[in-house]
Amino acid sequence: MRQELMSLPKTLADDVAKNLVMVARLLDAEPEEAYAYSRVALRLASRVAAVREAAGFASYVTERYSEALTEFRASRRMTGLADLWPVMADCERGLGRPERALEMAGAPEVKQLDKAGQIEMRLVAAGARSDMEEFDAAVVTLECSELGSNSVQPWTARLRYAYADALIGAGRADEAREWFAKAAEADQDGSTNAAERLAQIDGIEFVDALDPDVEIDDEAQVETAGDTGDTEDDDTEFAEGDGEDYYEDDDEEDEEEGVVTPSDETKRD
């Protein structure tokens, strides 16, 4: 990002950088404020890929999926990288187009992703299957070597949680309980509510013991909110699709925005 901003006049680059810092700082806690800062950065430097990406994430977390998709597409065209492919597919889900998300899950771009990106793509594809009430297919999509690995990675808890949730949809509650427990065990940073889902299955109610408005029944099974209780790569393709066709509808939009792609520069030379 720093190198991209260096192409701007110094004063402008400083202003853009300040807005991007605020986007990153507020994205989780105050997403609407982050979105406002992203729009300022976008007005100042719409031809910078990092700005388009930041604006995309700010739109994504505030559920402005159409805007997010536009920004992610622009950033990808500028960089030629596939890193944003999973979140772009999830935007398609947010727009009510799970079938398009599945097409993207089978596109060549998925092979360009690192392991974390491929796991993210699995999660999106499984979510799309669930959106279409194809719960058995969602279960199969998530079955991979990383699911049962003893090595806990940043994606482990979310992968196990999604698998348990798909099992619930498929009517396999007993198996789901086991995987919610495994997700809770791996969830070291609270990225899921696996412990709460596990407690619901066991008929345990979570309450805040410090809340004066909460009446605790000594005879009921109650746990405080802080008590969590017990604690080979899969080559199956997600779907068939062609990533090259995904952008055909956006050429006119990019020309209007002034987005310059690597292929455009080649043609001009």
Structure description:
- This protein is an all-alpha fold and 269 residues long.
- Among the domains are: 1-81, Alpha Horseshoe (Serine Threonine Protein Phosphatase 5, Tetratricopeptide repeat), CATH 1.25.40; 133-231, Serine Threonine Protein Phosphatase 5, Tetratricopeptide repeat (Alpha Horseshoe), CATH 1.25.40.
- The protein is built from 14 helices and two strands.
- A two-stranded parallel ribbon has the order 1-2.
- Helix 8 packs parallel to helix 10 (156-169) and helix 11 runs antiparallel to helix 12 (194-201).
- Mean pLDDT is 84; it is low at 219-232 and 265-269.
- InterPro entries: TPR-like_helical_dom_sf.
- Residues 229-258 have a biased composition (Acidic residues).
- It comes from Streptacidiphilus alkalitolerans.
- This is Tetratricopeptide repeat protein.
- Residues 216-269 are annotated as: Disordered.
* Class inferred from helices and paired strands: mainly alpha
Order of secondary-structure elements = HHHHHHHHHHHHEEHH
Strand tally: 2
Uncertain regions: pLDDT < 50 for 5+ in a row? 219-232, 265-269
InterPro entries: TPR-like_helical_dom_sf (IPR011990)
Protein name: Tetratricopeptide repeat protein
Organism: Streptacidiphilus alkalitolerans
Biased composition (Acidic residues): 229-258
Short description:
With 269 residues, the chain is mainly alpha-helical.
